[in-house]
Amino acid sequence: MNATAKRTFIVEREEQRVRPTYQTRTIRLIGDIQRETAEAMLRNAPLDPLRPLELVLREEPKARRLDQNSAMWAGPLRDIAEQAWVGGRQFSAEVWHEHFKREYLPEDASSDPYDQAQLALLVKNPQTYRKWDMTPKGDRVLVGSSTQLTERGFSEYMRQIEADGANMGVEFHVAPATAA
User: Fold this and answer.
1) What CA–CA distance (Å, rounded) separates 79 from 165?
2) pTM of the model
3) Strand, helix or coil for residue 123
4) Which of 69, 108, 113, 126 is most buried, most CB within 10 Å of its CB?
5) How far apart are CA 29 and CA 5, in angstroms?
C-alpha cells in the first residue's frame, strides 16, 4: 500500500470513528407523511460497516390499558393487602406492588435472539427497556415499571401476582365495575 492509500485509509477510519451514536427513532406508519419521513430517514442514514445501523419494521405493540391497571389495584393488590400475612404481618397494596415488580417484571434481554423476541412480546420498547439500574454507590435499584408492559406482558404479570396470592390463601374478588 502506497503512502497516499495509507493516508486515505486512516482518514476514512477516523471519519468512521467520529460518527456520533445514532439516536433511536420511531415512526408510526399511519399515512403518507409518515411513510415519506421514514423513506427520507433511510436515504440519509449513515452507512457504516464498523457500526451498522439496524432497521426493524414490526407491528406497534399494544400498550397496557388503563383498565388493566385499575383492575390490578382494585382487585388482586387490594385483596392481597387485605388477606395475606407474611412473617406475622400484613403489607399495603403499594408495598405488594413494589414486591411483585421486583419478582415478576421481565428481566432485560440477553444477546440471545430468542430472549429478545420474548421480551418484545412483553414490553413496549425492548430496545430501551431496563428492569434494573445502578446507583452512583453501585447499589442495584429497580427502574422497571408495569407501565412499560404490553397488554400481553401485563396479563402475564397479573397471572403471576394472582398465583402468588392464591399460594398465600387469598380469595380474589371481582373488581368493582366503573360507573359509565
Assistant:
1) 8
2) 0.64
3) strand
4) 126
5) 44
